[in-house]
Write a structure and sequence with these properties.
The structure holds 2 protein chains of 2 kinds. Chain A is mainly α. Chain A has 14 helices and 2 strands. In chain A, strands 1-2 form a two-stranded antiparallel sheet. The chains are: A mainly alpha, B alpha/beta.
Chain lengths: 318, 444
């Protein structure tokens, strides 16, 4: 069966445009056209990505110095790797990384597995009301993260939640906001928000598989189960890798859900996730340290996403 | 498929760099090379900028503008990110003439060279007698200048559900010892009832309690800040609340002002509230059905020390770069001492005035229907006079508050004690001051 998958991917490769491209620059009117198309992307990209990134990098190598008296006058100067040394010595930083590491290791596979199962179910000819289920599953994604977290915070709150009341009634005493549970309560919000989105990516990949493949598989005696796991899943592996990479990035950037739950649970500290830590440090005027933290988060994100893609490149046929 | 991979990589790159953008704003030199400020009136018409966080402040300013065609004031509400906006404006050299700054943020902003000393204008220094003493000692940095004028305060008091205390035959406590005893009795009588809640995420409130016990957290001597966040006085407060928490005599799962907090009061699960003057409207507006059940009495005291504490309040600061110091002083003085202005600020913004004249406002001299027509503001006015004038905030207060909160939350969850939290706050104070190159040492 993997043969079929390989054949499909190689067909996809075959229809790719030829590698050698004509030179785009210096071609008179064409250069102007290219410029007209590229500028709307490039200008904001430079202004809102490259410049701030460069500025943050520059800041991360600065330190504050001060002259004179009780309040003095501050200025910044080149400090080498001083800010980075502080990041690496900061236990709060590493525990926040550990916390979201744990979050990611549990939440990402669970979410993607559920998304995959849902996508496969939507793709079976047996299911009715497909459009309805597709929309329903996708709907949470349309809710902004902050709103979703506020909504869930009402469901978690012992004073207000009907769910907690109900569970209390049958003798369970759930504490969704307790020191051990609150991380998973946040993970639940993320899962609720993003499962439908990931499902849709996988589902669209499933849609592009030619029907003849299934016919061929059936003639070979494959059951629906076998078709799903031995044909569909291997073929959409690139989409699964893609959603995993998105999820890794999302996890490292986790901010909105815990920040909202923090309003009602003191078990979420101001340094709960790396981004929250960076924000807390910046709000204390230590912009240089916040910049260094951000750079380190970016590097970790980079390494993990590329590492994962590298690791899976062969199997996923990327 | 290759395309997908390439796009993924781009997306990954874009997303990864996105985080860095968050840290984009930053400081460069904020040198203080301006000449000594002068106080001469401008020749023509002047327009001042006043950034604030008070609801209805624009209406107060309208009144001023109508009466003072020569000094027009423009307001901007910055309540969504007060210090972020001010910090960025300062760095960009675009700070307003006047800005709302909390007492506890004054030293921090001064280390950013945010203020101008208005004492060049004699009217500014002359305002001293018009304000409650502790407010002036903080805005003048212990009499070394005039960097802001006090606007409002939050003298603390005890909000009591008198009906609950009566029901269980418990006298309203006058000292913290009596309060702890009452906590025990109430909880014993009804296990669902606690005397109050301890909000671990509210360092500002806890600071008010420390202040009440004359805990001096910062001093300056020998060219260094002396950090004494951890002291015998602060330890006494921490140990007291630690005991209540450990005995489950106070709840720790409620955040001040949250829907959950009101729900708990609504369900008669909590019998009192250690609050500030501006909090009187919280219960009135959120728990209308409990009208007549509440009274306000002086904050319990620490034995012989009859002091009270303050929680919150803010000032209107003279910002560096203002070209119209004379006019700024004029407007600022009117805004914060004129009875008509104070009455409007009290009515529209709920401010409890820092000016002595404000304490006698008609609205603050009457009985309040929600509180059984008691003259509750007399209690706050009395509290206001008993607030320690030597208390001072640190130059990195926000960072210290966050560290204190994080550690108090751990203590509330059974990991460590409130005394440990003070130690963490002390360490955070020293570390954050070192990061800002502010000379500091462990004080004694």
């Amino acid at each position: 069966m993997t043969d079929i998958a390989t054949r499909i991917t190689s067909t996809a490769r075959a229809v790719e445009p030829p590698k050698g491209r004509r030179r785009l620059t210096g071609g008179g009117p064409r250069a102007g056209t290219v410029l007209a198309f590229v500028t709307p992307f490039f200008l904001p990209f430079v202004l809102f990505y490259l410049v701030p990134v460069g500025y943050a990098l520059w800041q991360s190598f600065r330190v504050v110095r001060r002259s004179g008296g009780q309040y003095g006058t501050s200025y910044t100067t080149f400090g080498g790797f001083e800010q980075y040394v502080q990041v690496f010595q900061n236990t709060e930083f590493w525990s926040s990384i550990g916390r979201i590491g744990l979050f990611g290791i549990v939440q990402v596979p669970v979410m993607l597995f559920v998304a995959l199962v849902m996508a496969l179910l939507l793709d079976t000819p047996l299911l009715r009301l497909k459009a309805f289920f597709r929309i329903t599953a996708f709907m949470p994604y349309a809710v902004p993260g902050v709103i979703a977290a506020i909504m869930w915070s009402y469901l978690y709150s012992p004073q207000l939640s009907p769910v907690v009341d109900l569970l209390d009634g049958i003798g369970l005493k759930p504490d969704f906001l307790g020191p051990g549970a609150v991380l998973w309560s946040a993970a639940n919000v993320s899962t609720w928000l993003w499962t439908g989105y990931n499902m849709l990516i996988m589902y669209s990949a499933l849609q592009s598989i030619p029907q003849e493949l299934y016919e061929a598989a059936r003639i070979d005696g494959a059951s629906n189960w076998t078709i799903a796991w031995r044909i569909k899943v291997p073929i959409i592996a690139p989409s699964i890798v893609l959603t995993t990479v998105f999820s890794i990035i999302g996890t490292l950037q986790l901010y909105a859900e815990p920040a909202v739950l923090r309003q009602i649970s003191s078990n979420i500290s101001s340094t709960f996730t790396p981004n929250m830590l960076a924000y807390a440090v910046a709000s204390g005027n230590n912009y240089q340290q916040a910049a260094a933290i951000s750079v380190v988060i970016a590097v970790i994100t980079f390494v993990l996403s590329f590492g994962f893609m590298r690791l899976t490149a062969k199997r996923a046929g990327l | 498929m290759r395309n997908t991979a390439r796009r993924t990589r781009l997306a990954a790159l874009a997303a990864a760099t996105g985080i860095v953008v968050l840290a984009g704003c930053s400081s460069s030199d904020s040198s203080d090379k301006a000449a000594a400020p002068s106080c001469s009136p401008a020749k023509g018409k002047v327009t001042l900028q006043y950034w604030n966080t008070v609801p209805g402040m624009d209406k107060v300013v309208d009144l001023w503008n109508k009466r003072n065609p020569g000094i027009q004031v423009e307001t901007k509400n910055i309540s969504n990110d007060q210090y972020g906006i001010l910090g960025n404006a300062l760095k960009a050299g675009k700070a307003p003439d006047l800005a709302q700054v909390g007492y506890d943020e004054l030293p921090n902003l001064r280390t950013q060279s945010a203020f101008v000393d208005a004492s060049a204008c004699s009217a500014a220094g002359a305002a001293k007698s018009k304000f409650v003493p502790w407010t002036w000692s903080q805005t003048s940095f212990d009499g070394t200048g005039v960097f802001a004028l006090p606007q409002d305060t939050g003298p603390m008091a005890l909000f009591v559900r008198s009906d609950i205390f009566k029901k269980y035959g418990i006298a309203v406590p006058k000292t913290w010892d009596e309060y702890a005893a009452a906590a025990q009795k109430l909880h014993k009588a009804n296990s669902k009832l606690t005397i109050t809640f301890f909000d671990p995420n509210n360092a500002e409130w806890f600071n008010g309690l420390l202040w009440q016990n004359s805990a001096k957290m910062y001093g300056y001597s020998g060219d260094k800040w002396q950090v004494t966040v951890q002291s015998a006085q602060s330890k006494q407060v921490a140990d007291y609340w630690q005991k209540l928490i450990a005995g489950k005599l106070v709840r720790t799962d409620l955040a001040n002002g949250s829907t959950q907090m009101y729900a708990a009061y609504q369900k008669d699960q909590i019998a009192s509230y250690v609050g500030a003057a501006w909090g009187y409207s919280m219960f009135r507006d959120n728990l209308p059905k409990q009208s007549g059940k509440w009274s306000i009495v002086p904050m319990p005291t620490w034995g012989a020390n009859g002091s009270s504490g303050d929680w919150g309040g803010s000032t209107v600061a003279f910002m560096k770069g203002s070209k119209h110091l004379y006019e700024s002083v004029k407007f600022n003085t009117w805004l914060n001492t004129d009875p008509e202005a104070l009455a409007m600020e009290n009515k529209l913004g709920g401010l409890y005035p820092a000016a002595n004249a404000g304490l006698q406002l008609p609205a603050l001299s009457k009985g309040v229907p929600y509180y059984n027509n008691e003259k509750i503001f007399d209690v706050f006015a009395e509290s206001s006079k008993k607030i320690d004038t030597s208390f001072a905030w640190g130059p990195t207060q926000k960072t210290v508050n966050l560290a204190l909160q994080d550690a108090m939350a751990k203590a509330a969850a059974g990991d460590g004690t409130l005394d440990d939290a003070l130690a963490k706050a002390q360490a955070a104070a020293l570390k954050s001051m070192k990061d800002q190159a502010i000379p500091a040492a462990e004080g004694k």
